[in-house]
Amino acid sequence: MKWQRIPLGPLQTNAYILANTKKECVIFDPGGDGQILTAILRKQGLTPTAILLTHAHFDHIGAIDDCLAQWKIPVYIQEKEKNWLKDSALNGSAYFIPGQEILSKADPDILPIEGEFSVGDFTFDLFYTPGHSPGSVSYHCKELGVVFSGDALFQGSIGRTDLPGGSHEQLLDSIHKKLLTLPEETIVLSGHGPETTIEAEMDSNPFLNGFNLS
Question: Residue ranges of the Metallo-beta-lactamase domain (predicted)?
Fold first, then answer.
């Protein structure tokens, strides 16, 4: 398997494509520019089998309907955000881009709370990592040694927590008790910016220093 990062949409949110040798793939967080994304997939001869969302803020969902117009595939999301795709107030687009609200007609499938999660030939360890949003999740692919962390953890930073349902304390708890327990060499594939590693963030992320697990 191999992954690729494709910044898309109004905030250049990182969509990720994870593909296997059979030219099947899953799409993480298709944030916008749907025609660009679908053209890339067709050019590479990839057939998507699912859309996996780390959370449902507007900048992570903008190309869902363009993808579903090309491929009839499931969209997976954590239950606490199952209604966000159709609600611009919940997904934030009503406030950040008024008059250009970003919505999706998809009826999403609900992810398990945590544990092993498989879709087709793709298997992940699913972690519930709220704090940036109430339904944020991260997908750990052991085979490649990567974790798709959404907006929980970035290179040198963490997700904002001033949006509805956000909690700074909860986000730090999620990062320390879930993400930082992964092998230090694990590559962190974030929702924005370049990739990093668990080791690098443990050593130098200023937002994580001095956190008390008790």
Answer: 12-192
Distance CA(18)–CA(209), nearest Å, equals 32
Structure tokens at 13: 């949110």
Nearest CA-CA partner of 57 in 114, 135, 155: 135
What digits encode the pLDDT tens for the residues 99-147? 889 999 999 999 999 999 999 999 999 999 999 999 999 999 999 999 9
Q: Which CATH number fits domain 2-204: 3.30.70.1020, 3.60.15.10, 3.40.50.300, 3.40.50.880?
A: 3.60.15.10
Phi, psi for 78 (deg, rounded to 5) = -75, 145
